[in-house]
Amino acid sequence: MPEGHTVHRLAGAFATRFAGRPVEASSPQGRFAQGAALLDGRVLEAAEAHGKQMFLRFSEDLWLRIHLGLYGMWRFAGPGLAGFGRRTSRAVTAAEAPDFPPAPRGLVRLRLLTRSHVADLSGPTACAVISPAEKAVAMRRLGEDPLRHDADPARAYAKLHASRSAIGLLLMRQDIVAGIGNIYRAEILFRARLDPHRPGRDVTPEAWTALWTDLAALLRDGVETGRIVTTDPAHRARPQGKPRRDEASYVAHRAGRPCRICSTPIQSAPMAGRTLYWCPTCQTG
Asked: Active-site residue numbers?
């Protein structure tokens, strides 16, 4: 499942390459034919992300809500969309699609087409045309997104501090902090030296402020680069240059390997339906 920085990057792609243009909407797969018909011919006016959900506004105040979930992905074609790649979104190259628009690949739920760009959506958890009132309801269900200007970390802390549940569990609740996935959860807790099993009510305001500030910075870097890189250069074998994939994280997906700081084997255990990673020596706070 893509984490929040990926969804914000996708919203940026739509805002810069699709917004202000009329869109031909269709459902090659056929499962979203009615929704596509509502959008067909309308101008895509704006795009915004909130956590792991994206909202596209079309003329006459219709909204498209999209949640990629575990298997959803966008495929793009057109100039300026290279780099929106990897598993959840990728730009089709000229070699793959010498003619424009390229034929849909696989089970495409929704195709959005302008004269110069195309976006194909496959496998989303949610894809729905909604009203402004329905969008407002969906937004109210979401927690604070550190990448949004309207985020209020104090509201997130109030929910977290009122709970006896482990902070490692609470950080995966999208009604507390929207956009955090398994990798960011593990990495920000390590960088904060916080035990992921510590109850939320025992996290101090000072620790929360530091964690939130660090998370926001990491997410902004992820939006800019399209990667999750949480390690400091001093903790990599090659301090200079682009970090390799195996040097990008401190604890995530490194179970049994030595901690980059203290050499203790990284631990792992199930939590919130995902695998939690942590260092039992460094994370005692």
From this structure: 2-3, 52, 274
